[in-house]
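Much of our argument rests on the idea that a fold can be written as discrete symbols. The amino acid sequence and the backbone structure tokens for this protein are reproduced below:

___
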Amino acid sequence: MSSTESSKVEFLAVCTVKPGKLERAKALTTAFIDSVKAHEPNTLSFHMVEEVDATEPRLIMVESYKDRASMDAHTESPYFKTLFATFEGEDVFVSAPQQYVGKVVAGFAR
């Protein structure tokens, strides 16, 4: 693994969405992802995954960053703060998202 790869940070957020709020959560997050893509070159990837066969609506964010500083800058962006203020104001989530930060230790991409 190269030094660039070893500094990469992976982030997962599991968001349980209140009934009736799933489409709104997906729309808000899609617009947010567009802002991330346009303004954050060190965000290497960002995917919103909708859990299938879940008993509650759940969205999972799968994100990769060049390094920890890039991830920290992401969470300080004005559009990040606006998104989460909107989520809170519209009471979108059952509880705060579960968050996990890690690094890839094995796997592949095609």
In short: The chain has a mean pLDDT of 94. The chain is about 40% helix and 25% strand. The longest strand covers residues 9-16. Helices lie at 3-7, 22-39, 68-75, 78-89.
